Amino acid sequence: MSRRTLQATLTLLLIALSLLLLITQKDWYQPFENKLNDQLLVLRGVQPVDPNIVIVDIDEKSLKARGQWPWPRDQVAELLRKLTGLGAGMIGLDMVFAESDNSSPKRVFERLGRETDGLPDYDQRLAEAIAETPTITGYVFIQNPDGIDPGRLPTSRAMILERDKPAQSYLFQPYRAVLNLPILQESAYASGYFNSVPDADGVVRSVPLVMQYEQMLFPALSLEMLRVISGQRRIEVQYEHQGVNSVSMGPLHVPTDANGQMRLNFRGPAFSYPYVSAVDVLEGEVVPADLAGKIVLLGTSASGLMDLRATPLDSVYPGVEVHATAIDNMLNQDFLAQPMWTLGADVVTLLVGLMLIGLALMFTGSVLSFVVALTLIAGLVVAHYYLLVSQGLIFNTVVPWAAFVMLFGLGTVINYFFESRQKAKIRKRFAQKVSPAVVEELINHADDVSLEGKEQEVTLFFSDIRSFTTMSEKMGSARALITLLNRYMTPMVEVITKRQGTVDKFIGDAIMAYWNAPIEVEQHADEALTASVEQILALEDLNQTLAQDELPRIDIGIGLNTGVVVVGEMGSVGRSDYTCIGDAVNLASRAEGLCKPYSAKIVLTEFTVSALAHPDRFQMRFLDKVRVKGKSEPVSIYECLGFAQNDQAWYTMAQEERTLFDQAQMDYHEGRFSKALEGFRQLQTRWPQPLYDMYQSRCKHYVKHPPESFDGVFTLESK
After folding, report:
1. Would residue 362 count as lying in a domain?
2. How confident is the model at residue 628 (pLDDT cuts 50, 70, 90)?
3. What is the pTM of this model?
4. DSSP at 601
């Protein structure tokens, strides 16, 4: 299986698993989501609170001044009357008076069996105060059976309607209610429960707005207070197939979870709202401006009264402030919500993110794929933070985040495994073919190197030792011959690799190499010709050393051709090599074969000459226009005599010689054989060399046997 196939399979598998987890396993990842969202709220910082909400606190100061809780009910009644006298718009009681006040004189005398006529009843006084003040009483639901039989039903003036209710209700269904004394409950205009249901980690993040008890629906204290303030009568509970969607009351529309819970948008840590000590109210130390027209919640922050909660922004948070936050959120329409459509957005985010990371892993390097993964992971958190803070929307972050990290991590491991194999394969294939620098370049860009066959323009090189058979006979033994060949091959290969060439193979005494594969080489024709000249020059130094060791002299011929070939991994299963094939390879081999008949050291075709970026760096001359064996199309061939500098050329043509040679060549190729013969005779007389002698022989033949038609092309009958 290829790397990309494995990456694609992994991406699809993670998409399937992540979607399954996201849709069906909320209980598994929700605690992590809660913690992350808590941190986002902490990062957001403190927000302004509604100044119309005030908490009257039975704090440590109040307990020290008036004694331990519960206070006699006449003091609570006094507190309610004084709050009303200070202009409180509404009073909500975050407490329940479930038993009679045993400190009441009437109750004391009843226990003693004495006459109670005319004695004060503190419960009655509190009931009268509740009836005469804008007080909403509170009660609490017990969620699980506790061995006590359920008693009375709470009273509610609210009309709660359910729309599109499914067969199964998702609302909380408590076991029983802990209610105020009947005399208190009957005196209250309205009442609501003040339960807050913590999550599994003990942190309060939501409040249930409606609960179902004995087939009836009852509102939370915060919701009931707002209903009374707004003058609404009806509360509507809207369901979806997944449970409750929202709770509405007139223009107020509160998004909830499936259980009818409103996610609280906490404004800050404990004591973010204005607090007034209860004893200060009782002792007249509060001015009306502090309470006039405001929503007052009566509760406690004293640690001994056990009404402290853990919230996302504080580990010790008064329970009464939870209800203040709920009222604030509803009053100002500032909610945190996770509507059903956000699940669709989470699915799209997951799919797009995983596909992008998967594509990056498949088609880019590790650095770019890391940037893509990091951008998606960071962008996901930043986007969700922005949506939470500015829009109050909660999205799932943990599952996509974990999926992104997992895909990148596993994908990187897969890439590392395949890249290691690719690097080992490259090192094995090219360690003896190219220079160490080129090998490192191939390894560093292993993703960009394809060993599969592809078309590529290359400059091909063939070299061969002249009279190798004769030299072999002189060496006497195969071991001595191999030693000599190694001494020759080593500097020749060093020159090729130094010039960014790739050694393809050794064919006996011959060397095949090419430029511009497996990595691209700028001006590859120039590099190949430079390497060829440097080999001839290096061979002169080697021959001097060989002469000192009484070893035969080595002469070589080099052929060059430039053209498009198929280059890549070729061979049989289990035994292959990186090489190239094509007509251009054959022509390069033929060019090397022309060195002998033309008595040249380096023969290059017209295609290599035209590919040279800097032909002026070399001394070259036109040799002939030939039709090599196996090819029907003629090709012009040239001889390189070395570098343009005189001290780096083995033969330098004087200007007079070059002019005479060019004219003789022109006469020959245009069929003026007698004139050409005279030119080559002058050349041979003044600058004798086998090339001029060869052309004299041709011209003599054509003078004696004129061809019927002559196109200037010499056809070779042998390789």
Report:
1. yes
2. confident
3. 0.64
4. S
